[in-house]
Structure formats: structure tokens, C-alpha cells
Design brief:
Elements (H helix, E strand, L loop, with lengths): L16 E10 L2 E11 L4 E5 L6 H8 L7 E6 L2 E3 L4 H7 L1 E5 L10 H6 L5 E2 L4 E2 L1 H15 L14 H14 L4 E5 L7 H16 L3 E5 L3 H7 L2 E6 L2 E7 L5 H9 L17 E10 L3 E9 L3 E5 L6 H8 L7 E6 L2 E2 L5 H6 L2 E4 L3 H5 L6 H6 L12 H14 L16 H13 L5 E5 L7 H16 L3 E5 L3 H7 L2 E6 L2 E7 L5 H9 L11
Parallel strand pairs: 3-10, 3-11, 6-9, 9-10, 15-20, 15-21, 18-19, 19-20
Antiparallel strand pairs: 1-2, 1-4, 4-5, 7-8, 11-12, 13-14, 13-16, 16-17, 21-22
Helix pairs in contact: 4-5, 8-17
């Protein structure tokens, strides 16, 4: 039950915001598909879903970053369309993000009124005294002690959030979206944020609250809407539902028969990690990867999974702990050392860190092993290797000299996979290998992952898609807030138990709710 106020009343006023049939595609892939939502004044609604459920795309659509391909946004009953965040903000919709975007060298007051400074008289000069006085009134209304002349660069994360909330209030925001606002806050700062949310609700401002933490959801919100795979699933009052039932709505699908899984005999330990720690990213991470095994890593936003993998690959400094590969010490200071020992890492962001979009397919695939071709490259040998891997990966391209930028997202990912397979690794780390690619390409990547272990490789699969990790992994390691919190065998893992561990929710007999 909501602990900030008495049990929430059923809303009977007209909605301030309604969405009907909101659809958004990227390269033919549905990020949102027919989403609907209704929000009343003074309502705090929790927007709930797994990673990849469409929450971020919906926020960007509401705030004018994306324009929907189909559907209607109604504000106070009138259809609206935003071509920019400025238009959305002027209409009364604003967002407070986990990572705030401000002008660090400007003062608090200047950030609140940036782009719309009030002026004095016919001279048109900026009314600096008026700006500061108005900012002070906003913080007095929020009951927050924050000097309006302070530089934003000197503020804490919580104080930056308060500045964004003040900016929203200065524009008479009707809807405030809070996207993982507590991720980097202390408990004291979180309680302060809760108090401000209660103030917004009392003043009639509607709030969309996005969080993976169920304790926060039940404490701060009075209603919920659940998205799954870009689609609306359910909505209702939080007083009428349990944490277990919400988890079941989030995951709600059978997965094991939907993914190819080669019958491979799991061998001896190949990669052994003990007490891997970093001062700010993760702490005391230990796990073992066996020969011929797919080891899944699951966790919510900020769990630290990618940071651990980057550290293993030699991309991170100041890391403590021990690593052994094939029985030998294997703490890599650089990616070159990791590659030489048979470790490959396919990063989450294929366009920024995985592929060179301006280079041809052929050169992308052979880039990590150029030294094998000598100083004067042997084009035929390069072409044979690239051709073999392209065929194995079912790459759809006109020719090997085609630039990677011209390929679909799924085929770009196949090029990145081919690039690292060319190094002939013992262990391959796949970080979100199917993120943002179409269903057909996902199926091809899933088949290929299964084939990798059948051919003798060991795979670490980092995925925010629960069906993917449940369907492919032999074991699943669950991380939360930089630590390993649970490990499940394939037989033990259920959608509910894995999400519960990742969320820090204690659920009794949750499987019965599926």
C-alpha cells in the first residue's frame, strides 16, 4: 500500500493524458505496437516492464524526441503532436531522467529558465533579479534549500533532479515523467524525492514513475500500466495487485520451446572468476564458465553486467580479483591480450563499438586478425574467410565489399559476430546480441549461438530479454546493483524467480501466478 498518503481514491476526473494505438517502428521492428494509456490529474502511475518492453521509446514519444508512426496522443482531450521536446514542454509534458542534461557552467536559476529568460521593459534586457527571485519561489514551494546562484556542475545528482522538477513547475507542467529517478540517490535523497512527488500529486500534477524497484513502485505510485514487447498488457490500481502478480504480468510467456538448444555435454571449468571488484561499478563478482556451456547473465538497468564483461576483456582499469582461463592466470590489461588468449567480446552497441560502418563487410570481419595476413594483405585469403563466416551466419548482403552502414541492424550484428569468430576464441561474450534487431535475424542469431557451443565454444550471454536468457542458457547468473545475487540452473529458472531475484522482491509460490 502507498505509504505516503491514505489508500488512493479511484480517479473520476477526465484524463489529462490519453494514448490510443501508439505505434513506433525502427527499421521495420516494432518498438511500440498499439500502446494505450490513460492518466488523470494528480495520479502517480507506475510504468512497468522488462528491459526492452518499450518504456524508453514511449517516454521519447511523449516528450517529442520521436513522433509515432500511428496512434493518437490526447492532452486534455485534444489531439496533440510534438515535433520537438520544446513543443512537448510548452504543452505541459516534461521528463526527469536518470542522467540529467543541463548546462553545467550556468547557474541553477539560469538552467530553470534557459531559452525563455524574462526581460525588463522596452530594452529587452534579461531580468536576472526576476529569474533568481522566481527560482527561489519554486524551491520554497518544493521546500528544498538550494542556492539559485550555484553552478549546476557543483550539484549532486539529487539536486539536479530537483532543478529539473523546478523547471517543470516553472512551465506549469501537467505531466511529469520520472525515468529511473532514484538510481543514483541515497536513501535520504530518495525520501526527499518521494516527498516532492507527493506535493506534485496534491497540486494536481500527473506523474509517470518508471522504476525496476518494486518497493519504490508500491510506495510512491497509486496505479500501474504494464508493457511487454512494446505492447500494452494491463493496467489498474496498485492496491488491487501484488508484487507477484505484477511480475507475472511483466514476463507472462512460455520460453523454453521457442529457442533452439543444442544437446551439448558440459565439460570442465574453462573460465573461473573470483572476487572481481571495481571501486564504483561492481563488487565481489564470482562465477565459473564450463566448456560447451552457455552461461546467461541477467539483471535490470544498472546491475553491472556489461561493466563486468568489459573488465574481463581488458577495457577497465582498477579492477581487483582473480581470473583463470584454461587453468592459467588471465587478468588482461588490454583487449589485445584477451584476444591472444582466446577471449572475444561482442559489445552491446554494435554501431559505436562493434562495427566500422564506413568499411566494407570483408574488412570488418578480418580487422582483428590482420596480422595473420602479413604486411601485404592477401585479398583472396581475406575473401575466403569472410565469405565462409558470412555464409555460416546467413548474412544477407549483395557483396562482401558492401559497406556495413548499408546493412540492416540484424545483418550488422552478424558482421560483428563474424569479426570476433574470425579470432577463433575459446570463450565468446555476447552482450545483448539481439538488441534492436528484427525477429528473423533474432532467430538466426539464436540458432548460431546454439551452434557455437556445439562446435566447442563456451558462451557468456548477457541479455535483458528474459525469454532469450531462459531459452538458451544452461545456467543463469542474476546481478543486482553490481553484485551477484542468485544463480539458477536451467531446470530451476522460471521467469518469475529470475525477475524476482533481479528486482530484489521476495515472492512466495510465484510460479503459481504464471
Amino acid at each position: 500500500m502507498n505509504q505516503l498518503t491514505s489508500p488512493p481514491l479511484r480517479h473520476t476526473t477526465a484524463p489529462v493524458l490519453q494514448l490510443d494505438g501508439i505505434t513506433k517502428r525502427f527499421n521495420g521492428v516494432h518498438a511500440l505496437n498499439g500502446v494505450r494509456l490513460s492518466l488523470q490529474p494528480g495520479q502517480v502511475m507506475a510504468l512497468i516492464g522488462e528491459n526492452g518492453a518499450g518504456k524508453s521509446t514511449l517516454v521519447k514519444t511523449l516528450t517529442g524526441i520521436h513522433r509515432p508512426d500511428a496512434g493518437t496522443i490526447l492532452l486534455d482531450g485534444k489531439a496533440v503532436s510534438f515535433a520537438s521536446p520544446q513543443q512537448a514542454m510548452a504543452a505541459g509534458i516534461t521528463a526527469v531522467h536518470q542522467e540529467t542534461v543541463m548546462f553545467d557552467e550556468l547557474s541553477v536559476a539560469e538552467n530553470i529558465y534557459v531559452g525563455r529568460h524574462p526581460t525588463r521593459g522596452a530594452s529587452g534586457r534579461i531580468d536576472w533579479a526576476g529569474i533568481e527571485a522566481a527560482a527561489e519561489q519554486l524551491f520554497a514551494r518544493l521546500e528544498v534549500d538550494l542556492p539559485v546562484r550555484a553552478r549546476v556542475r557543483d550539484l549532486s545528482v539529487a539536486q539536479r533532479h530537483f532543478v529539473e522538477i523546478a523547471r517543470a513547475l516553472s512551465q506549469d507542467a501537467r505531466v511529469v515523467i520520472m525515468d529511473e529517478p532514484t538510481a543514483a540517490l541515497s536513501q535520504r535523497e530518495i525520501r526527499e524525492l518521494y516527498r516532492i512527488i507527493a506535493q506534485l500529486r496534491a497540486a494536481g500534477t500527473a506523474v509517470i514513475f518508471i522504476s525496476h524497484k518494486f518497493d519504490e513502485i508500491f510506495e510512491v505510485a497509486d496505479s500501474y500500466t504494464v508493457l511487454r514487447d512494446g505492447q500494452y498488457v494491463a493496467d489498474g490500481q496498485l492496491a488491487d495487485i501484488t508484487e507477484a502478480e505484477l511480475v507475472a504480468l511483466m514476463v507472462g510467456r512460455s520460453v523454453h520451446n521457442a529457442y533452439p538448444k543444442a544437446n551439448v555435454t558440459i565439460g570442465a571449468p574453462l573460465l573461473e572468476v573470483q572476487g572481481l571488484s571495481h571501486p564504483s561499478e561492481f563488487d565481489n563478482v564470482s562465477f565459473t564458465l564450463r566448456r560447451g556451456e552457455i552461461l546467461g547473465f541477467y539483471g535490470l538497468v544498472g546491475a553491472g553486467r556489461s561493466e563486468v564483461m568489459q573488465a574481463l576483456f581488458g577495457l577497465t582499469a582498477n579492477v581487483r580479483g582473480t581470473v583463470q582461463l584454461a587453468g592459467q592466470p588471465a587478468r588482461f590489461r588490454t583487449p589485445n591480450e584477451a584476444i591472444a588468449r582466446g577471449l572475444a567480446y561482442v559489445p552491446e552497441d554494435r554501431q559505436q563499438h562493434g562495427a566500422h560502418l564506413s568499411l566494407p563487410i570483408l574488412q570488418n570481419i578480418t580487422l582483428p586478425i590482420l596480422s595473420q595476413f602479413g604486411f601485404l594483405l592477401r585479398p583472396r585469403a581475406e575473401a575466403r574467410l569472410a565469405g565462409r563466416l558470412a555464409q555460416q551466419l546467413e548474412l544477407k548482403a549483395g557483396y562482401l565489399t558492401q559497406h556495413v552502414a548499408e546493412l540492416s541492424g540484424g545483418n550488422q550484428q552478424k558482421v560483428v559476430l563474424g569479426k570476433w569468430l574470425a579470432t577463433q576464441p575459446q570463450v565468446i561474450i555476447l552482450d545483448e546480441p539481439t538488441k534492436g534487431i528484427d525477429i528473423g535475424s533474432k532467430a538466426a542469431v539464436h540458432r548460431f549461438i546454439s551452434e557455437l557451443v556445439a562446435d566447442g565454444l563456451s558462451v557468456i550471454l548477457v541479455s535483458s530479454e528474459l525469454p532469450e536468457v531462459l531459452g538458451l542458457a544452461d545456467r543463469i547468473v542474476v546481478m543486482r546493483q553490481g553484485r551477484v545475487v542468485s544463480e539458477f540452473s536451467r531446470a530451476q529458472a522460471t521467469p518469475e524467480s529470475v525477475v524476482a531475484a533481479a528486482s530484489g522482491v521476495a515472492l512466495a509460490n510465484v510460479a503459481e501466478l504464471a
